Amino acid sequence: MKTVLFLCTENSCRSQMAEAFARQLGGGVIEAHSAGSSPSDSVNPLAVTVIREKGMDISGARPKGFNDLPVKRVDYLVTMGCQDVCPVFPTIQQVEWKLPDPKGQPVEFFRCVRDDIEKKVKELIETISAKNVKRDYTGMAEIIQGKVSPATGSDDRMKLATDVLWEGLKDKGLDWVGFYRLLPGQDAMELVCRQPRAACSPIGLQGVCGKGMRDKTAQIVRDVYALGDKHIICDPANLSEIVVPVIEPDGSCRAVLDLDSRELGAFDQQDAEGLVLVLRSAGLTI
Question: Could you list the active site residues?
Fold first, then answer.
């Protein structure tokens, strides 16, 4: 999930409306904040009115300065006419929205600015969403192929694939990646390797990893919480998942590759096909 900061001058109109739309529309994609270069004492009542017409309530919000924010760096900084004061906040990417300040204007003017902000927020969410990023599985497969050798053991191949996938996808919607392997004589799987942090181990076979191993097919889950008790919760912040089985030469499956994202619907069939390519480059699946 990407952090986005909306900045205007007083944080009483434009940036407050943008934050409201981003929170309403960007769940699972962005974490939204807003601030002003010179915050006013209160949110403009007309901004509250026109946002309420869209089913949101910002009457309890208050204008904030940079020092009031819970974050010190963001992925995207969206400025809205606060001139040279805006760029001081650390960010990876800055975007300027040319939006007129509605302060002192009639409610009809506020509605026009509101609707423009809504459109821009939707476009921003679409741009940021992991569903729209290009993931270079061919490039990652080539890196793995160049590093693996006939003498490389299975666990080392898994670790290599995990590390390359993490480096290639950590900025493209991936939150966690690792391999699980069936424990001999048990209805459970153990974690073999992972990036960037530890996870549940061992786990039962009732979850997505177990289903992927049993069915020997990729499992693409748009919303893990829709699975109910069939979802094994290791990190409550992760919302979608893809599991790809590791198929042995004899057709059996005793391990799976597991990827998690903090965005809804982060993976699709193209990802499944790309991950199979990566596994084959590591010599892990037929």
Answer: 8, 82, 86
Is residue 117 assigned to a domain?
yes
Asked whether residue 137 falls in the same domain as residue 251, the answer is yes
Q: Where is 95: in which H helix or E strand?
A: strand 91-96
Domain membership of residue 43 as a residue range: 2-128
Mean pLDDT of the chain: 94
Q: pTM for the full model? A: 0.73
Which residue among 128, 143, 170 closes a domain? Answer: 128
Considering only the C-alpha atoms of the chain, give the largest distance between any 2 of them, rounded to a whole number of Å.
74
Kindly list the strands in the beta sheet with 240-247, ordered across the sheet, starting from the edge strand earlier in the chain: 203-204, 188-195, 176-182, 253-261, 240-247, 219-221
pLDDT in tens, 41-53: 999 999 999 999 9
By the 8 A CB rule, do 124 and 78 touch?
Answer: yes
- The segments of the chain whose pLDDT lies below 70 read 82-87
